[in-house]
Amino acid sequence: MLISVNRRPLLQCYLLAQNSYTNIRTLSSTVQQSQHQKSDEQSSTNDGDDNWFNVESGADIDERVVPKPISYRPDHLPQLRKRQKQKPWWKFRYFVDINSLPSEQAEYTEKPEYPPIYEPTSDGKRKQIRLDWYQAIRRLPTAEQKIYEITKHYGHLSLMIDPVMSTYNGLPTQQSITRTHLINELPESYRSNDNLTNVDNIEHLRQQILSIIAA
């Protein structure tokens, strides 16, 4: 009995088997070649690094692939390196913010409160500043504080008054400053004996004065 067989799938299976056999045979050789290449590359890089840092080994500095940057700062001193810029996420807080809660205020008041009405002109602004100053003076408790508030913005010259002024005809000015007046005689209270109550002390002083005059 004859059975018809399709030869095409059989040929495909045979070719795949042959290719897999050849791949398995060549796998070991390819692995060995890659290992040799890696070892050669590592040795070349190590030699390059040694030549980079060791100038005395004979490698020329100008022949390096990446030229070393020229700097006057020694590489072995870390404190002389350039300062690194602060990153934006490096944030240091040396204090704590404590904000008190706002005081509760009544939403409605018994009497209506309206904002003050000001004149928008320059004269109105100056007038309002003056009125605010008047209100500040009225709030001060004592008269001395009010006078100081009024006069503290002005400079006051100090004047030393001598018993006899050096300027010509300066007596009227001195009398006006000191609010005084002069007379050509002694006061009448010096002549009366009404204020002399202790006569014993007067006699004692009289004897001392007479003894001083006689000496």
From TrEMBL:
<dbReference type="InterPro" id="IPR010793">
    <property type="entry name" value="Ribosomal_mL37/mL65"/>
</dbReference>
<dbReference type="GO" id="GO:0006412">
    <property type="term" value="P:translation"/>
</dbReference>
<dbReference type="Pfam" id="PF07147">
    <property type="entry name" value="PDCD9"/>
</dbReference>
<dbReference type="InterPro" id="IPR039982">
    <property type="entry name" value="Ribosomal_mL65"/>
</dbReference>
<keyword id="KW-0687">Ribonucleoprotein</keyword>
<dbReference type="GO" id="GO:0005762">
    <property type="term" value="C:mitochondrial large ribosomal subunit"/>
</dbReference>
<keyword id="KW-0689">Ribosomal protein</keyword>
<feature type="region of interest" description="Disordered">
    <location>
        <begin position="30"/>
        <end position="54"/>
    </location>
</feature>
<protein>
    <submittedName>
        <fullName>Ribosomal protein S30-like protein</fullName>
    </submittedName>
</protein>
<feature type="compositionally biased region" description="Polar residues">
    <location>
        <begin position="30"/>
        <end position="46"/>
    </location>
</feature>
<dbReference type="GO" id="GO:0003735">
    <property type="term" value="F:structural constituent of ribosome"/>
</dbReference>
<keyword id="KW-0496">Mitochondrion</keyword>
